Amino acid sequence: MEKQHPGKLYAAALGAMICFSLSFVWFKIANISYGPLTIVFFRLLASSLILWIVNRLTGRLVMPVKKDFRYLLLLAFFEPFLYFMGESYGLQYISPTVASVIIGTIPLFAPLAGFLFFREKISPRNLLGILLSFLGVILVIYEFGVGLTASPVGVLLQFSAVFSAIGYTVVLHKISARMNNLSIILFQNILGSLYFAPFWLAFEYRGFVQTPFDPKAMLAIGELAVFASTLAFIFFTYSVRHMGITRSNMFVNFIPVFTALFAWLILGDPLSAQKILGIVVVITGLFFAQMKFRKSYEGPDPIPRT
Asked: What is the extent of the structural domain holding 112?
């Protein structure tokens, strides 16, 4: 494999994390005019079209065989369907910063899934990292003397997205190794859009056709499709190929930081000293858990969201 310049690799990894981080902000912008189902449905349709073109142009498209479909159907059910249901509806109740901190805990639960389903070892460092990050989450969503500053409903919905992502990684562990990442993402997005279609038709279609066209909101949906659901994955898979899983996934820990910054700059979300401390504690726990975890865990790595 041709050696790549480190600066190019770091730029690709950071570019992916920036796109994933901005997705929380873009959703909030789109949600002003359109419902969660509308945003996700059109995002998946647009991303599927883009990924189909990319796969065809690069010659990397791998069509699934019969035995792949049961895994792809289950994969798409966990993510994007259940995952985006939890994340999108959760974002209606909590800020992008809080959502990204909770979603950022996904790598912490991978060792637990590995232990439960594949009997893989969990080290004390993994457990300490999980506890540290939960402490950080509490600092972000709970203000001393005030109480919860984030909606419990929103927090629970975000954690449902986290556990959906864990289900996704368990199924991904079993899917045929002959399919590359871009092909898997393409077909899970196509199937995901089919899962969302009846719900969108039943609950949001009428409201969508009656809502005046909002160019700013539609642009945000387009940005979600192009950058968060397509380019981010291309950048990330490129960095994984040349830097390896361990080094690439360390960049995932910066998503809450970037999201907090973008939400503050673009949406004007407040960023208190306690929230900053909570974000730092979450990231510390993530780094701490993954340092040991990456040496022993050989299952699939959670793909960054969203």
From this structure: 6-296
